[in-house]
User: Fold this.
Amino acid sequence: MITVKPVPADAFNSVRDTHGNTGWLHDCGAFTYSPTQPHRCGVCWSALRNGQAHNGSWQQAYVLKEAS
Assistant:
């Protein structure tokens, strides 16, 4: 199982994938790796929630893979 969690404010300076991209979690629950805060959410954009797609509500996040 893979769990996506927001980064605790006091725990990390940065969280990056193998290509150096930072993980980001949108308010709708979408997760992406991007070097900077994404401009829009692809999930919200695809669902025609255009106002929510551009709201900038992103948090740095990390992926935790747990043994099944």
